[in-house]
Specification:
single chain, alpha/beta, four-stranded parallel β-sheet, two-stranded antiparallel sheet, 8 strands
């Protein structure tokens, strides 16, 4: 006997993929990756979405290290770790704002999005980032950290690219693709020292090289999904500044505690 789902294309010849998706979402809901509750088509239930948005909003008012973006317990601008030149690879940045720490259940959440390919989480993550953007960077153009060559062709999408697309379409934020990546080596396969020394992986895009001096923005915000050592953001900031961008800040969805 045929299942009700298999009969959907016959009943709805137009838009059958959409109808199939709605039918599956309604009768076979996902489980929330954070609490295990019902989550219809997003991998996150309503309660967990609300809690994460609240956390993102509350993080806006925290004192942060101007180098690594971690929460500060003192009135200093730079944390103890980043006062050491060896431990502060992101010193070329003019401030950084991570939204969440990569801890506990957030590890599973990132895995669902980045590794398991749940692209439907991108609009929600963009909302979390937008909370920080509006608080600290309102009106500034975003510069995405570019994916390794061939990633989008192979995987069908890139996480950071999906985030800036949401910012461009839904929040009308200017997105400037001013960087290209020259290496296909995956960052997650590099050790800390290798990450810090991989300075030649990023270069100015043709658009940045061709941009007239008077048209270059004075201040841009780098956007990446995860900050581990900060080396990627530091290298990207150096390229931008070498090509006439005066000030470079950064915003990331997650930061990995060291």
């Amino acid at each position: 006997m045929e299942s009700p789902v298999s009969n959907i294309p016959r009943l709805f010849p137009l838009g059958k993929s959409l109808v199939r998706k709605v039918f599956s979402t309604a009768f076979f809901p996902d489980s929330c990756v954070m609490c295990g509750g019902l989550a219809y088509g997003l991998s996150l239930c309503r309660e967990c979405r609300s809690a994460l948005l609240k956390e993102a909003s509350e993080n806006c008012d925290d004192r942060r290290c101007s180098v690594c973006g971690k929460k500060m317990l003192s009135e200093d601008e730079v944390c103890l770790q980043c006062r050491s030149s060896e431990a502060a690879p992101a010193k070329g940045l003019d401030g950084i704002r991570p939204v969440f720490s990569y801890l506990l259940k957030k590890k599973k959440l990132l895995y669902e999005w980045k590794i398991a390919g749940k692209e439907n989480l991108s609009p929600f993550f963009a909302d979390c980032l937008a909370t920080v953007y509006k608080h600290d960077f309102q009106g500034l153009p975003l510069v995405p950290v570019p994916p390794r060559p061939g990633k989008i062709r192979t995987n069908g999408w890139d996480q950071t690219d999906s985030l800036v697309r949401e910012f461009s379409i839904r929040y009308k934020v200017d997105v400037l693709k001013l960087l290209v990546r020259t290496s296909g080596q995956q960052q997650k396969k590099l050790g800390r020292s290798e990450r810090l020394s991989a300075s030649g992986q990023y270069m100015a895009s043709k658009a940045l090289v061709a941009m007239a001096a008077e048209k270059k923005p004075c201040h841009v915000v780098l956007l990446d999904d995860v900050m581990t050592t900060g080396s990627t953001l530091s290298h990207c900031a150096s390229v931008l500044k070498e090509n006439g961008i005066e000030k470079v800040s950064a915003m990331t969805l997650f930061t990995v505690p060291v």
